[in-house]
Amino acid sequence: MKFSLLTESSDLSSSPLLITLLHPENIPQQLEQYQFNQLDKWLEASQFQAKFNDLQPALQQSPRNAVLYLAGLGDTAELSASKVTKLAQTIIKTVQKKAESIVIDLSALAEDYQATFALALAQANYSFDQFKSKKVDNKLAQISFYQAASSLNSEKLALIEAISTGQSYTRNLGNTPGNVCFPEYLAEQALELANEFPDLLKVTVLTEQDMTDLGMNAFLAVSKGSDRPGRIVILEYAAQREEKPVVLVGKGVTFDTGGISLKPAATMDEMKFDMCGAATVLGVIRALCESRLPIHVVGALACAENMPSAHATRPGDIVTTLSGQTVEILNTDAEGRLVLCDTLTYIKRYDPELVIDIATLTGACVVALGKVLSGLFSPDNALAQELISAGEQSFDRVWRMPVLEDYQELLDSPFADMGNIGGPTGGAITAACFLQRYTKDYRWAHLDIAGTAWLSGAQKGATGRPVPLLMQFLANRAQG
């Protein structure tokens, strides 16, 4: 999706399809600039009152044959980011098959919501038809914005466009099936990205032999059950090399059967989304390259396939992690923390300013927060608040959950330093506590996106979250 800005001198009636956002107050006065014929008569006949999410074509004929749509914002005091997002979805659904480009007049929309609205339009315009013989008939590729006076400038629009590109890239990866998207595939995507942006990006790929040599036995305990070899992929975005990097670590389990602790068959197809943490990191790196934000970021993808086989890890097996700590693997379906713990130890060599891991880690987080908010775990109050604020700004919100010493004893094992599960209660918390044991040497936050990385049912598909959250977080740090 491409965005552009129009100036106050632009002739809005020259657009073939024009949408203007309106509040209920003084509708005729808000429409005076368009000079459409007999607008008052149409308003009287249509009873258009600019109620929220009311979208109507006003005139099929105008001085320049433009089609004007009126979009109701409703009561100003009741407007919210959720409502703005819903209106964007209604607009896209109405026009995406009718025009290649549209103009939207934002003059009536409060500045606080304009960036959210712009990104929501791009999100709603997304489609994935790579594996369909009949392609989606979606013509819309360009949206131009007009506002009489606004802080939404070309620089902000360029960042929103970059976020949209990265988020769509993440969604594409997440929606790709496991017989195509496996660990080597994600490594190839990273290498292709580096070829596209050779001045900004450096990629390193660790093979299973590299991991064996290093002693990453927790990671290998997951990947060895599959014929597809695991990979750890490091992407270094160094638009600003002299500062310590922000490190993003993504869980990339390209398909999760549960291993020997086999999952139920129902909805197991959705376990192709278990690599959405790694897909998020790739999407953020692409968005950084598109926007060229002046910040140093390292992305680490922990890519494996979790399969049952004669080589698969058994419940009760004990492994020694890269950190030297030992783990009794009580449930092979708690595999995400195993690939992450070795990766979180490995990235210490980059001397990080801070580390954020992103993972579809626990069903318990879905039970706690549903599909609305991502779970945020961090012992660092300042870092947690940065992420919460970035989530509010980007409307990609998180909710802080506890990661307290009180829960650590639930991971105790009689045979190893810890078990990889903590019992039937507080599953999202004990998973975070497990990861915390490998992050003592740097500032750290964990995002559990099991509920927000994809949708089920009729709208099944990857959401691309939390790319907007992380890009807003990085943009705030780059500007601050």
Automatic annotation (TrEMBL):
What are the subcellular locations of this protein?
Cytoplasm
GO CC list: cytoplasm
A Gene Ontology biological process noted in the UniProt record is: proteolysis
Q: Which residues form the signal peptide?
A: none
The Swiss-Prot or TrEMBL record lists the needed cofactor(s) as: Mn(2+)
HAMAP family, sorted = Cytosol_peptidase_M17 (MF_00181)
Instruction: Please report the name of this protein according to its UniProt entry.
Output: Probable cytosol aminopeptidase
Which organism's genome codes for this protein? Acinetobacter populi
Gene name? pepA
